[in-house]
Amino acid sequence: MADRGWPGCAASLKGVILDMCGVLYDSGEGGGVAIPGSIEAVNKLKASDLQLRFCTNETQASREKFVAKLQKLGFDILVSEVFSPAPAAVAVLRERGLRPHLLVYDGLLPEFDSVDKTNPNCVVIGDAAEQFTYQNLNNAFRVLTGLEKPVLFSLGQGKYYKETDGLKLDVGPYMKALEYACDLKAEVVGKPSPTFFQSVLNDMGLQPHEALMIGDDLVNDVGGAQHCGMKGIQVRTGKYRPSDERHSTVTADSTVDNLAQAVDTILNQRL
Amino acid sequence: MADRGWPGCAASLKGVILDMCGVLYDSGEGGGVAIPGSIEAVNKLKASDLQLRFCTNETQASREKFVAKLQKLGFDILVSEVFSPAPAAVAVLRERGLRPHLLVYDGLLPEFDSVDKTNPNCVVIGDAAEQFTYQNLNNAFRVLTGLEKPVLFSLGQGKYYKETDGLKLDVGPYMKALEYACDLKAEVVGKPSPTFFQSVLNDMGLQPHEALMIGDDLVNDVGGAQHCGMKGIQVRTGKYRPSDERHSTVTADSTVDNLAQAVDTILNQRL
Protein backbone atom coordinates (compact mmCIF):
# COMPACT_ATOMS: atom_id res chain seq x y z
CA MET A 1 0.00 0.00 0.00
CA ALA A 2 1.23 3.52 -0.77
CA ASP A 3 1.18 6.47 1.63
CA ARG A 4 -0.67 5.59 4.85
CA GLY A 5 0.40 8.82 6.55
CA TRP A 6 -1.68 11.98 6.94
CA PRO A 7 -3.53 13.07 4.87
CA GLY A 8 -3.16 10.15 2.42
CA CYS A 9 -4.58 7.69 4.95
CA ALA A 10 -7.91 9.53 4.86
CA ALA A 11 -8.72 7.98 1.46
CA SER A 12 -9.15 4.53 3.03
CA LEU A 13 -10.80 5.59 6.30
CA LYS A 14 -14.14 4.10 7.31
CA GLY A 15 -14.81 5.97 10.55
CA VAL A 16 -13.91 9.06 12.57
CA ILE A 17 -14.04 9.49 16.33
CA LEU A 18 -14.26 13.02 17.71
CA ASP A 19 -13.36 14.25 21.17
CA MET A 20 -15.94 16.82 22.24
CA CYS A 21 -14.77 19.49 24.73
CA GLY A 22 -12.04 21.59 23.10
CA VAL A 23 -12.84 20.19 19.62
CA LEU A 24 -16.56 20.91 19.22
CA TYR A 25 -16.91 23.58 21.89
CA ASP A 26 -15.21 25.33 24.78
CA SER A 27 -16.98 24.66 28.07
CA GLY A 28 -17.82 27.45 30.49
CA GLU A 29 -20.63 29.46 32.01
CA GLY A 30 -24.04 28.99 30.37
CA GLY A 31 -23.04 25.80 28.53
CA GLY A 32 -19.98 27.14 26.74
CA VAL A 33 -19.55 28.21 23.11
CA ALA A 34 -19.19 26.29 19.84
CA ILE A 35 -15.72 26.49 18.26
CA PRO A 36 -16.07 28.31 14.92
CA GLY A 37 -16.60 25.88 12.03
CA SER A 38 -17.20 22.81 14.22
CA ILE A 39 -20.99 22.62 13.81
CA GLU A 40 -20.58 22.63 10.02
CA ALA A 41 -17.70 20.13 10.21
CA VAL A 42 -19.91 17.63 12.07
CA ASN A 43 -22.65 18.14 9.47
CA LYS A 44 -20.17 17.47 6.65
CA LEU A 45 -18.98 14.24 8.30
CA LYS A 46 -22.58 13.11 8.78
CA ALA A 47 -23.30 13.79 5.10
CA SER A 48 -20.26 11.69 4.08
CA ASP A 49 -19.88 7.91 3.88
CA LEU A 50 -17.78 7.87 7.06
CA GLN A 51 -19.08 6.48 10.31
CA LEU A 52 -18.99 9.01 13.14
CA ARG A 53 -18.81 8.56 16.92
CA PHE A 54 -18.11 10.96 19.78
CA CYS A 55 -15.83 9.97 22.61
CA THR A 56 -15.61 12.16 25.70
CA ASN A 57 -14.21 11.98 29.20
CA GLU A 58 -16.91 14.44 30.27
CA THR A 59 -18.13 13.40 33.72
CA GLN A 60 -19.95 16.46 35.01
CA ALA A 61 -23.35 15.54 33.57
CA SER A 62 -25.29 12.47 32.50
CA ARG A 63 -24.99 11.67 28.79
CA GLU A 64 -28.59 12.82 28.23
CA LYS A 65 -28.03 16.27 29.77
CA PHE A 66 -24.64 16.61 28.12
CA VAL A 67 -25.95 15.81 24.64
CA ALA A 68 -28.91 18.16 25.15
CA LYS A 69 -26.41 20.95 25.89
CA LEU A 70 -24.50 20.22 22.68
CA GLN A 71 -27.74 20.11 20.66
CA LYS A 72 -28.65 23.51 22.09
CA LEU A 73 -25.30 24.86 20.86
CA GLY A 74 -26.35 23.69 17.39
CA PHE A 75 -24.67 20.28 17.05
CA ASP A 76 -26.41 17.36 15.33
CA ILE A 77 -25.55 14.66 17.89
CA LEU A 78 -27.50 11.71 19.33
CA VAL A 79 -27.02 10.12 22.77
CA SER A 80 -26.39 6.76 21.06
CA GLU A 81 -23.38 8.21 19.22
CA VAL A 82 -21.66 9.37 22.42
CA PHE A 83 -19.27 7.25 24.51
CA SER A 84 -18.43 8.48 28.02
CA PRO A 85 -16.77 6.93 31.09
CA ALA A 86 -19.72 6.69 33.50
CA PRO A 87 -21.72 4.01 31.62
CA ALA A 88 -18.45 2.11 31.06
CA ALA A 89 -17.74 2.26 34.80
CA VAL A 90 -21.25 1.06 35.66
CA ALA A 91 -20.65 -1.98 33.45
CA VAL A 92 -17.35 -2.77 35.20
CA LEU A 93 -18.88 -2.36 38.68
CA ARG A 94 -21.69 -4.79 37.74
CA GLU A 95 -19.29 -7.31 36.26
CA ARG A 96 -17.12 -7.35 39.38
CA GLY A 97 -19.87 -7.01 41.98
CA LEU A 98 -18.43 -3.76 43.36
CA ARG A 99 -20.34 -1.13 45.35
CA PRO A 100 -18.89 2.33 44.85
CA HIS A 101 -18.36 5.30 47.10
CA LEU A 102 -18.82 8.10 44.56
CA LEU A 103 -16.75 11.26 44.43
CA VAL A 104 -18.31 12.76 41.30
CA TYR A 105 -20.09 15.93 40.25
CA ASP A 106 -23.74 15.97 41.38
CA GLY A 107 -24.85 16.13 37.75
CA LEU A 108 -23.32 12.70 37.08
CA LEU A 109 -25.13 10.88 39.92
CA PRO A 110 -28.13 9.81 37.78
CA GLU A 111 -25.78 7.58 35.73
CA PHE A 112 -25.23 5.53 38.90
CA ASP A 113 -28.89 5.35 39.98
CA SER A 114 -29.11 1.62 39.32
CA VAL A 115 -25.92 0.75 41.21
CA ASP A 116 -25.88 -0.56 44.80
CA LYS A 117 -23.86 1.94 46.84
CA THR A 118 -24.42 0.53 50.35
CA ASN A 119 -21.35 -0.51 52.37
CA PRO A 120 -18.91 0.55 49.64
CA ASN A 121 -15.98 -1.66 48.64
CA CYS A 122 -14.42 0.66 46.07
CA VAL A 123 -14.19 4.36 45.17
CA VAL A 124 -15.09 6.00 41.85
CA ILE A 125 -13.84 9.53 41.16
CA GLY A 126 -14.78 11.79 38.28
CA ASP A 127 -14.26 15.45 37.47
CA ALA A 128 -15.97 16.71 40.63
CA ALA A 129 -14.66 20.29 40.16
CA GLU A 130 -15.88 22.50 43.05
CA GLN A 131 -17.02 19.34 44.83
CA PHE A 132 -13.36 18.32 45.21
CA THR A 133 -13.42 19.81 48.70
CA TYR A 134 -10.89 18.71 51.32
CA GLN A 135 -13.69 16.97 53.19
CA ASN A 136 -14.89 15.02 50.14
CA LEU A 137 -11.39 13.94 49.15
CA ASN A 138 -10.68 12.95 52.74
CA ASN A 139 -13.88 10.88 52.86
CA ALA A 140 -12.84 8.99 49.71
CA PHE A 141 -9.37 8.48 51.26
CA ARG A 142 -10.89 7.07 54.45
CA VAL A 143 -13.07 4.61 52.51
CA LEU A 144 -10.00 3.37 50.62
CA THR A 145 -7.79 3.01 53.70
CA GLY A 146 -10.59 1.10 55.43
CA LEU A 147 -10.66 -1.58 52.70
CA GLU A 148 -8.49 -4.67 52.82
CA LYS A 149 -8.04 -4.52 49.05
CA PRO A 150 -8.64 -0.89 48.09
CA VAL A 151 -9.88 -0.33 44.51
CA LEU A 152 -9.98 3.11 42.93
CA PHE A 153 -11.61 3.82 39.57
CA SER A 154 -10.88 7.13 37.89
CA LEU A 155 -13.18 8.42 35.13
CA GLY A 156 -10.33 9.62 32.95
CA GLN A 157 -6.90 10.89 33.94
CA GLY A 158 -6.87 14.32 32.26
CA LYS A 159 -4.62 16.94 33.85
CA TYR A 160 -6.73 20.00 33.06
CA TYR A 161 -9.19 21.38 30.56
CA LYS A 162 -9.97 24.80 29.25
CA GLU A 163 -13.13 26.67 30.13
CA THR A 164 -14.05 30.05 28.76
CA ASP A 165 -12.54 31.68 31.89
CA GLY A 166 -9.27 29.71 31.92
CA LEU A 167 -7.66 26.35 32.65
CA LYS A 168 -9.34 24.09 35.21
CA LEU A 169 -7.95 21.05 37.02
CA ASP A 170 -9.42 17.79 35.74
CA VAL A 171 -9.81 14.49 37.61
CA GLY A 172 -6.24 13.28 36.95
CA PRO A 173 -4.47 15.35 39.65
CA TYR A 174 -7.00 14.13 42.24
CA MET A 175 -6.49 10.55 41.07
CA LYS A 176 -2.75 11.02 41.66
CA ALA A 177 -3.44 12.49 45.10
CA LEU A 178 -5.40 9.40 46.18
CA GLU A 179 -2.91 7.03 44.55
CA TYR A 180 -0.12 8.58 46.61
CA ALA A 181 -2.12 8.79 49.84
CA CYS A 182 -3.22 5.13 49.62
CA ASP A 183 -0.19 3.55 47.91
CA LEU A 184 -2.25 2.18 45.03
CA LYS A 185 -2.71 2.47 41.28
CA ALA A 186 -6.10 3.63 39.99
CA GLU A 187 -7.91 1.80 37.20
CA VAL A 188 -8.71 4.40 34.53
CA VAL A 189 -12.11 4.11 32.85
CA GLY A 190 -12.45 6.32 29.75
CA LYS A 191 -9.74 7.69 27.51
CA PRO A 192 -6.89 6.66 27.17
CA SER A 193 -7.93 3.16 28.32
CA PRO A 194 -7.65 0.76 25.33
CA THR A 195 -10.82 -1.03 26.51
CA PHE A 196 -12.71 2.23 26.11
CA PHE A 197 -11.47 3.00 22.58
CA GLN A 198 -12.08 -0.65 21.61
CA SER A 199 -15.72 -0.38 22.69
CA VAL A 200 -16.18 2.51 20.24
CA LEU A 201 -14.50 0.57 17.42
CA ASN A 202 -16.71 -2.44 18.21
CA ASP A 203 -19.80 -0.26 17.97
CA MET A 204 -18.74 0.87 14.48
CA GLY A 205 -17.66 -2.65 13.51
CA LEU A 206 -14.24 -1.33 12.42
CA GLN A 207 -10.61 -2.34 12.78
CA PRO A 208 -8.29 0.24 14.40
CA HIS A 209 -6.49 1.07 11.13
CA GLU A 210 -9.85 1.98 9.57
CA ALA A 211 -10.53 4.72 12.12
CA LEU A 212 -9.07 8.08 13.09
CA MET A 213 -9.35 10.04 16.33
CA ILE A 214 -9.39 13.86 16.48
CA GLY A 215 -8.80 15.51 19.85
CA ASP A 216 -7.24 18.45 21.68
CA ASP A 217 -5.59 16.29 24.39
CA LEU A 218 -2.29 14.99 23.05
CA VAL A 219 -1.79 12.23 25.60
CA ASN A 220 -5.33 10.98 26.21
CA ASP A 221 -6.92 11.49 22.78
CA VAL A 222 -4.03 11.23 20.32
CA GLY A 223 -1.68 8.95 22.29
CA GLY A 224 -4.52 6.74 23.50
CA ALA A 225 -5.88 6.24 19.96
CA GLN A 226 -2.42 5.58 18.53
CA HIS A 227 -1.79 3.02 21.27
CA CYS A 228 -4.85 1.14 19.92
CA GLY A 229 -3.61 1.24 16.33
CA MET A 230 -5.64 4.24 15.14
CA LYS A 231 -4.30 7.45 13.65
CA GLY A 232 -4.47 10.43 16.01
CA ILE A 233 -4.82 14.07 14.94
CA GLN A 234 -4.48 17.00 17.35
CA VAL A 235 -6.36 20.27 16.87
CA ARG A 236 -4.92 23.62 17.96
CA THR A 237 -8.07 24.47 19.94
CA GLY A 238 -9.22 23.75 23.49
CA LYS A 239 -6.39 22.79 25.81
CA TYR A 240 -3.82 22.58 22.99
CA ARG A 241 -0.53 24.22 23.93
CA PRO A 242 2.40 24.85 21.53
CA SER A 243 4.65 22.66 23.72
CA ASP A 244 2.47 19.67 22.70
CA GLU A 245 4.21 19.74 19.30
CA ARG A 246 7.54 18.81 20.96
CA HIS A 247 6.21 16.32 23.54
CA SER A 248 8.68 13.70 24.75
CA THR A 249 6.57 10.57 24.21
CA VAL A 250 3.55 11.35 21.97
CA THR A 251 3.70 12.70 18.41
CA ALA A 252 0.41 13.35 16.62
CA ASP A 253 0.04 12.01 13.07
CA SER A 254 -0.78 15.61 12.28
CA THR A 255 -1.59 18.85 14.03
CA VAL A 256 -4.27 21.02 12.42
CA ASP A 257 -5.72 24.40 13.31
CA ASN A 258 -9.19 23.16 14.16
CA LEU A 259 -11.84 20.54 13.43
CA ALA A 260 -13.06 22.36 10.32
CA GLN A 261 -9.60 22.14 8.76
CA ALA A 262 -9.22 18.46 9.73
CA VAL A 263 -12.58 17.52 8.20
CA ASP A 264 -12.00 19.49 4.96
CA THR A 265 -8.61 17.78 4.56
CA ILE A 266 -10.12 14.33 5.16
CA LEU A 267 -13.02 14.83 2.77
CA ASN A 268 -10.74 16.30 0.07
CA GLN A 269 -8.78 13.01 0.05
CA ARG A 270 -11.98 11.11 -0.69
CA LEU A 271 -13.22 13.08 -3.71
CA MET B 1 33.26 -0.78 68.41
CA ALA B 2 30.78 -3.40 69.67
CA ASP B 3 27.03 -3.37 69.14
CA ARG B 4 25.92 -0.19 67.36
CA GLY B 5 22.37 -1.51 66.91
CA TRP B 6 19.39 -0.68 69.08
CA PRO B 7 19.41 -0.39 72.04
CA GLY B 8 23.20 -0.72 72.41
CA CYS B 9 23.79 2.40 70.31
CA ALA B 10 22.02 4.50 72.93
CA ALA B 11 25.07 4.32 75.23
CA SER B 12 27.10 6.53 72.87
CA LEU B 13 24.33 8.93 71.81
CA LYS B 14 24.76 12.66 72.24
CA GLY B 15 21.40 13.91 71.00
CA VAL B 16 17.79 12.94 70.34
CA ILE B 17 15.39 14.47 67.83
CA LEU B 18 11.67 14.00 68.40
CA ASP B 19 8.87 14.26 65.93
CA MET B 20 5.91 15.98 67.59
CA CYS B 21 2.43 15.11 66.23
CA GLY B 22 1.78 11.40 66.85
CA VAL B 23 4.75 11.12 69.23
CA LEU B 24 4.08 13.79 71.83
CA TYR B 25 0.37 14.29 71.19
CA ASP B 26 -2.53 13.46 68.88
CA SER B 27 -3.88 16.54 67.16
CA GLY B 28 -7.59 17.30 67.00
CA GLU B 29 -10.33 19.59 68.24
CA GLY B 30 -9.33 21.93 71.07
CA GLY B 31 -5.58 21.45 70.55
CA GLY B 32 -5.50 17.66 70.77
CA VAL B 33 -4.41 15.39 73.64
CA ALA B 34 -1.02 14.38 75.04
CA ILE B 35 -0.04 10.75 74.40
CA PRO B 36 0.21 9.03 77.81
CA GLY B 37 3.76 9.09 79.18
CA SER B 38 5.10 11.58 76.62
CA ILE B 39 5.17 14.66 78.90
CA GLU B 40 7.25 12.74 81.45
CA ALA B 41 9.46 11.27 78.72
CA VAL B 42 10.38 14.77 77.50
CA ASN B 43 11.14 15.81 81.11
CA LYS B 44 13.42 12.78 81.54
CA LEU B 45 15.33 13.61 78.35
CA LYS B 46 15.74 17.22 79.46
CA ALA B 47 17.10 16.05 82.83
CA SER B 48 19.64 13.81 81.06
CA ASP B 49 22.96 14.73 79.43
CA LEU B 50 21.45 14.30 75.95
CA GLN B 51 20.75 17.23 73.69
CA LEU B 52 17.13 17.46 72.63
CA ARG B 53 15.48 19.03 69.58
CA PHE B 54 11.99 18.81 68.11
CA CYS B 55 11.48 18.43 64.40
CA THR B 56 8.00 18.77 62.93
CA ASN B 57 6.38 19.12 59.54
CA GLU B 58 3.53 20.99 61.22
CA THR B 59 2.45 23.82 58.93
CA GLN B 60 -0.96 24.83 60.24
CA ALA B 61 0.31 27.39 62.75
CA SER B 62 3.32 29.63 63.30
CA ARG B 63 5.99 28.09 65.54
CA GLU B 64 5.04 30.48 68.35
CA LYS B 65 1.37 29.45 68.36
CA PHE B 66 2.24 25.80 67.88
CA VAL B 67 4.66 25.72 70.80
CA ALA B 68 2.18 27.59 73.00
CA LYS B 69 -0.35 24.83 72.27
CA LEU B 70 2.13 22.13 73.31
CA GLN B 71 3.05 24.05 76.46
CA LYS B 72 -0.65 24.23 77.34
CA LEU B 73 -0.86 20.45 77.00
CA GLY B 74 1.92 20.26 79.63
CA PHE B 75 5.09 19.92 77.54
CA ASP B 76 8.33 21.68 78.51
CA ILE B 77 9.29 22.96 75.06
CA LEU B 78 10.83 26.23 73.82
CA VAL B 79 10.37 27.81 70.38
CA SER B 80 14.16 27.74 69.90
CA GLU B 81 14.17 23.94 70.22
CA VAL B 82 11.61 23.44 67.43
CA PHE B 83 12.47 23.06 63.71
CA SER B 84 9.62 23.39 61.22
CA PRO B 85 9.40 23.83 57.41
CA ALA B 86 8.08 27.40 57.14
CA PRO B 87 11.17 29.22 58.47
CA ALA B 88 13.32 26.90 56.35
CA ALA B 89 11.24 27.80 53.28
CA VAL B 90 11.51 31.53 54.02
CA ALA B 91 15.30 31.16 54.09
CA VAL B 92 15.29 29.39 50.69
CA LEU B 93 12.97 32.01 49.13
CA ARG B 94 15.28 34.80 50.33
CA GLU B 95 18.39 33.03 49.06
CA ARG B 96 16.93 32.54 45.60
CA GLY B 97 15.02 35.83 45.32
CA LEU B 98 11.67 34.05 44.86
CA ARG B 99 8.24 35.59 45.52
CA PRO B 100 5.72 32.93 46.55
CA HIS B 101 2.06 32.41 45.84
CA LEU B 102 1.03 30.77 49.13
CA LEU B 103 -1.38 27.86 49.43
CA VAL B 104 -1.08 27.35 53.18
CA TYR B 105 -3.32 27.32 56.23
CA ASP B 106 -4.27 30.83 57.39
CA GLY B 107 -2.55 30.18 60.71
CA LEU B 108 0.82 29.82 58.94
CA LEU B 109 0.67 33.14 57.08
CA PRO B 110 2.48 35.15 59.82
CA GLU B 111 5.65 33.09 59.14
CA PHE B 112 5.71 34.67 55.65
CA ASP B 113 4.98 38.26 56.77
CA SER B 114 8.45 39.46 55.83
CA VAL B 115 8.42 37.88 52.35
CA ASP B 116 7.60 39.79 49.15
CA LYS B 117 4.57 38.10 47.60
CA THR B 118 3.84 40.50 44.73
CA ASN B 119 3.87 39.15 41.17
CA PRO B 120 4.65 35.58 42.31
CA ASN B 121 7.29 33.48 40.55
CA CYS B 122 6.83 30.27 42.57
CA VAL B 123 4.22 28.43 44.64
CA VAL B 124 4.55 27.23 48.24
CA ILE B 125 2.05 24.67 49.54
CA GLY B 126 1.65 23.47 53.09
CA ASP B 127 -0.97 21.43 54.92
CA ALA B 128 -3.85 23.74 54.07
CA ALA B 129 -6.50 21.19 55.18
CA GLU B 130 -10.01 22.67 54.66
CA GLN B 131 -8.40 25.46 52.65
CA PHE B 132 -7.45 22.89 49.99
CA THR B 133 -10.58 23.88 48.07
CA TYR B 134 -10.84 23.24 44.33
CA GLN B 135 -10.62 26.96 43.74
CA ASN B 136 -7.44 27.38 45.81
CA LEU B 137 -5.71 24.40 44.20
CA ASN B 138 -6.76 25.66 40.77
CA ASN B 139 -5.35 29.12 41.56
CA ALA B 140 -1.98 27.58 42.50
CA PHE B 141 -2.10 25.50 39.29
CA ARG B 142 -2.76 28.59 37.18
CA VAL B 143 0.16 30.47 38.75
CA LEU B 144 2.47 27.54 37.98
CA THR B 145 1.30 27.09 34.36
CA GLY B 146 1.74 30.83 33.83
CA LEU B 147 5.46 30.70 34.74
CA GLU B 148 8.16 30.00 32.21
CA LYS B 149 10.11 27.99 34.80
CA PRO B 150 7.52 26.83 37.33
CA VAL B 151 8.88 26.18 40.84
CA LEU B 152 6.81 24.40 43.50
CA PHE B 153 7.90 24.12 47.14
CA SER B 154 6.07 21.65 49.35
CA LEU B 155 6.30 22.00 53.13
CA GLY B 156 6.67 18.26 53.72
CA GLN B 157 5.36 15.36 51.68
CA GLY B 158 3.39 13.43 54.33
CA LYS B 159 0.51 11.31 53.04
CA TYR B 160 -1.81 11.69 56.03
CA TYR B 161 -1.80 12.22 59.76
CA LYS B 162 -4.05 11.13 62.57
CA GLU B 163 -6.35 13.49 64.40
CA THR B 164 -8.53 12.49 67.31
CA ASP B 165 -11.44 11.98 64.89
CA GLY B 166 -9.55 9.94 62.28
CA LEU B 167 -6.98 10.07 59.48
CA LYS B 168 -6.59 13.35 57.57
CA LEU B 169 -4.90 13.97 54.22
CA ASP B 170 -1.60 15.82 54.58
CA VAL B 171 0.14 18.08 52.05
CA GLY B 172 1.79 15.21 50.11
CA PRO B 173 -1.24 14.15 48.03
CA TYR B 174 -1.82 17.77 46.97
CA MET B 175 1.85 18.11 46.07
CA LYS B 176 1.46 15.05 43.84
CA ALA B 177 -1.69 16.55 42.28
CA LEU B 178 0.17 19.73 41.26
CA GLU B 179 3.25 17.78 40.14
CA TYR B 180 1.06 15.76 37.77
CA ALA B 181 -1.00 18.71 36.56
CA CYS B 182 2.09 20.81 35.80
CA ASP B 183 4.59 18.10 34.77
CA LEU B 184 7.12 19.10 37.41
CA LYS B 185 8.83 17.82 40.55
CA ALA B 186 8.29 19.74 43.78
CA GLU B 187 11.16 20.72 46.05
CA VAL B 188 10.34 19.38 49.51
CA VAL B 189 11.21 21.64 52.45
CA GLY B 190 10.98 19.86 55.82
CA LYS B 191 11.25 16.15 56.58
CA PRO B 192 12.54 13.98 54.87
CA SER B 193 14.78 16.55 53.13
CA PRO B 194 18.42 15.90 54.15
CA THR B 195 19.03 19.68 54.27
CA PHE B 196 16.34 19.96 56.93
CA PHE B 197 17.71 17.18 59.16
CA GLN B 198 21.22 18.57 58.69
CA SER B 199 20.13 21.99 59.97
CA VAL B 200 18.97 20.32 63.22
CA LEU B 201 22.26 18.42 63.57
CA ASN B 202 24.18 21.64 62.93
CA ASP B 203 22.23 23.38 65.68
CA MET B 204 23.24 20.62 68.13
CA GLY B 205 26.80 20.54 66.79
CA LEU B 206 26.57 16.77 66.29
CA GLN B 207 27.48 14.21 63.64
CA PRO B 208 24.66 12.05 62.28
CA HIS B 209 25.86 8.88 64.09
CA GLU B 210 25.66 10.74 67.40
CA ALA B 211 21.93 11.43 67.04
CA LEU B 212 18.72 9.43 66.93
CA MET B 213 15.30 10.33 65.53
CA ILE B 214 12.03 9.11 67.03
CA GLY B 215 8.87 9.44 64.95
CA ASP B 216 5.55 7.88 63.99
CA ASP B 217 6.05 8.38 60.22
CA LEU B 218 8.12 5.50 58.87
CA VAL B 219 9.11 7.12 55.59
CA ASN B 220 9.56 10.77 56.53
CA ASP B 221 10.85 10.50 60.12
CA VAL B 222 12.61 7.12 60.24
CA GLY B 223 13.64 6.76 56.60
CA GLY B 224 14.60 10.43 56.31
CA ALA B 225 16.82 10.27 59.42
CA GLN B 226 18.44 6.99 58.34
CA HIS B 227 19.15 8.52 54.93
CA CYS B 228 21.22 11.16 56.78
CA GLY B 229 23.14 8.57 58.79
CA MET B 230 21.11 8.73 62.00
CA LYS B 231 19.34 5.87 63.70
CA GLY B 232 15.54 5.97 63.30
CA ILE B 233 13.05 4.55 65.80
CA GLN B 234 9.32 4.26 65.09
CA VAL B 235 6.67 4.50 67.80
CA ARG B 236 3.40 2.57 67.62
CA THR B 237 1.37 5.75 68.23
CA GLY B 238 -0.02 8.45 65.94
CA LYS B 239 -0.26 7.39 62.32
CA TYR B 240 1.65 4.11 62.93
CA ARG B 241 0.04 1.17 61.14
CA PRO B 242 1.03 -2.51 61.58
CA SER B 243 1.89 -2.71 57.86
CA ASP B 244 4.76 -0.27 58.54
CA GLU B 245 6.67 -3.18 60.10
CA ARG B 246 6.82 -4.95 56.73
CA HIS B 247 7.43 -1.89 54.52
CA SER B 248 9.16 -2.55 51.20
CA THR B 249 11.90 0.09 51.43
CA VAL B 250 12.21 1.42 55.01
CA THR B 251 13.02 -0.68 58.10
CA ALA B 252 13.18 1.10 61.44
CA ASP B 253 16.16 0.40 63.69
CA SER B 254 13.50 -0.51 66.23
CA THR B 255 9.78 -0.20 66.73
CA VAL B 256 8.61 0.63 70.24
CA ASP B 257 5.18 1.03 71.78
CA ASN B 258 5.49 4.74 72.51
CA LEU B 259 7.87 7.58 73.37
CA ALA B 260 7.90 6.65 77.07
CA GLN B 261 9.21 3.17 76.25
CA ALA B 262 11.80 4.53 73.81
CA VAL B 263 13.14 7.04 76.34
CA ASP B 264 13.29 4.53 79.21
CA THR B 265 15.21 2.10 76.99
CA ILE B 266 17.67 4.83 75.91
CA LEU B 267 18.30 6.09 79.42
CA ASN B 268 18.72 2.54 80.80
CA GLN B 269 21.62 2.03 78.39
CA ARG B 270 23.37 5.06 79.86
CA LEU B 271 23.28 4.15 83.58
Major interchain interface with per-chain residue totals: A-B, 29 and 29 residues
| Secondary structure: number of strands of chain A | 14
Strand adjacency order, main sheet of chain A: 5-4-1-12-13-14
Separation of the first and last Cα atoms of chain A:
19 Å
What is the CATH H-level superfamily of the largest domain in chain A?
HAD superfamily/HAD-like
Mean pLDDT, all residues of chain A: 95
* Biggest beta sheet attributes of chain A: 6 strands, parallel
- Oligomer, anyone? homodimer
GO molecular function (chains A, B): inorganic diphosphate phosphatase activity; metal ion binding; phosphatase activity
Cofactor (chains A, B): Mg(2+)
Pfam family, one (chains A, B): Hydrolase_like
GO cellular component, one term (chains A, B): cytosol
Provide a descriptive summary of the structure in words.
2 copies of one chain form a homodimer. With 271 residues, chain A is of the alpha/beta class. Chain A has 2 domains: 148 residues, HAD superfamily/HAD-like (Rossmann fold, 3-Layer(aba) Sandwich); 95 residues, Rossmann fold. Chain A is built from 8 helices and 14 strands. Chain A has a 6-stranded parallel beta sheet. In chain A, helix 4 links the parallel strand 7 and strand 8. In chain A, helix 1 packs parallel to helix 8. The first copy, chain A, is globular. The model of chain A has no long low-confidence stretch (mean pLDDT 95). The interface between A and B is medium-sized, with 29 and 29 residues.
